[in-house]
Specification:
This protein has two domains: 116 residues, no CATH class; 204 residues, MFS general substrate transporter like domains (Growth Hormone, Chain: A, Up-down Bundle), CATH 1.20.1250.20. Helix content is 84%, strand content 0%. It contains 20 helices and no strands. The longest helix has 33 residues.
């Protein structure tokens, strides 16, 4: 009876993790896990996997000692777990800097020498050029998000974080040395493409490497770093530099991210999905700050059982020839996707990104005088402070 109760507890936790996967844009894991929840054969596989997990001598011993429950109640922050989360969230800070750059850069382009070779030398109208410069990163970010799924699956989570720094670096260099509209738009597209990769990569890495008790708080760190990036971008723009010099200042942050991303381990979940059990074990030990402990061994057994369920769900889906259309028809998929999509649509329609992109231009045309930078900084601080309140 005790074993059956624990088994049901594990199954309930499994379905909660499906919800967590949806929240962190874990497209691959979300699709396979929800597909398994809808198949009766896979449900039996869940019971078998849980039974095998609980029948493991080591796991049974830990359950009797009560260490099983204490594993999920621990709220300590091993230093490398926190370090890996901050590094992944740092990619969102780079995205925030990209968003904040648009506002002062457009004002500088219109007022300085760029007005000659960007605006007067083009057949496009001034308004169209401004809109093109501002709209290129969001469009490129959309493409980057679409392509991030296959790259994350084949290249890995940590390597993808390293990879996305390259478009950021070359993009800012292209903007810094850009004396033609093509180079500026190319740089904006590269940085926007990298921001799209960061949207999925950072949150997926955090959700897979952080323990369940602290996943809620640490999982919000990327969003907080995004707001901090916008605030830092506005503060940096206060310095008396033109748009090209500002681009070189922004270049420093992707370089820092490149160095930091080389110091974090690969996601143990991804390594298990690729059949690299030994490397997955080493990665988990590093993240938990231990060489080998009972708690870490128990968590690894749990991780293996869930990975086995996911792989069986993938095989079952392929055997039944279930395509994307079949999955979309499942209420467990389209309903949360509709809610998430609706919330994101309302967020975009609120005009927040338009205010960020044109904040300096709006205040300049409103003739705010010396108070322009004060209003810009206050806007960034409000955005960042609200994100801290949500985290607390």
């Amino acid at each position: 009876m005790h074993t059956a109760t624990i088994c049901m507890h594990r199954i309930i936790k499994f379905f909660r993790q499906i919800h967590a996967c949806i929240s962190y844009d874990n497209t691959h894991t979300m699709t396979t896990a929800i597909c398994s929840a809808g198949c009766s054969v896979t449900v039996l596989a869940i019971f078998r996997a849980q039974s095998a997990f609980l029948n493991n001598p080591f796991v049974s011993k830990m359950v009797e000692k009560g260490s099983y429950s204490s594993l999920h109640q621990s709220t300590r922050y091993p230093w490398l777990e926190m370090h890996a989360t901050v590094v992944a969230a740092f990619s969102f800070l780079c995205t925030g800097l990209l968003r904040a750059y648009t506002s002062p850069a457009i004002v500088s382009m219109k007022a300085g020498e760029a007005n000659v070779f960007l605006y007067n030398s083009s057949v496009l109208h001034h308004t169209h050029i401004t809109s093109l410069i501002a709209a290129t990163p969001p469009f490129a970010s959309f493409l980057g998000t679409l392509l991030s799924g296959p790259v994350l699956h084949h290249l890995g989570r940590q390597k993808t974080l390293v990879f996305l720094t390259l478009p950021h670096i070359f993009g800012w260099i292209s903007i810094g040395f850009g004396y033609t509209l093509f180079l500026v738009v190319l740089g904006r597209a590269l940085t926007g493409f990298a921001a799209g990769f960061a949207t999925a990569s950072a949150q997926l890495y955090v959700s897979e490497c952080v323990r369940a008790p602290v996943r809620g708080k640490l999982g919000f760190l990327p969003s907080m770093m995004l707001a901090l990036g916008v605030l830092l971008g506005f503060l940096i723009s206060v310095v008396d530099v033109n748009w090209q010099q500002l681009a070189f200042l922004m270049l420093v942050f992707p370089l820092i991210l490149l160095l930091l991303s080389l110091s974090i381990p690969e996601s143990p979940y991804w390594l298990l999905m690729r059949g690299k059990k030994e490397l997955a074990w080493r990665s988990l030990c590093k993240l938990r700050g231990s060489i080998e402990t009972d708690m870490t061994r128990l968590e690894f057994c749990d991780m293996e059982s869930r990975t086995e369920m996911t792989l069986k769900a993938v095989v079952e889906r392929r055997r039944n020839n279930q395509g994307i259309c079949t999955l979309i028809k499942m209420r467990s998929i389209w309903y949360p996707a509709l809610i998430a999509g609706g919330l994101m649509t309302l967020q975009q329609l609120s005009g927040a990104n338009a205010i960020i992109n044109y904040c300096s231009l709006i205040l300049k045309e409103a003739h705010t005088g010396n108070a322009e930078m004060l209003y810009v900084g206050r806007f960034g601080w409000i955005r960042f402070s609200k994100s801290i309140k949500i985290l607390i």
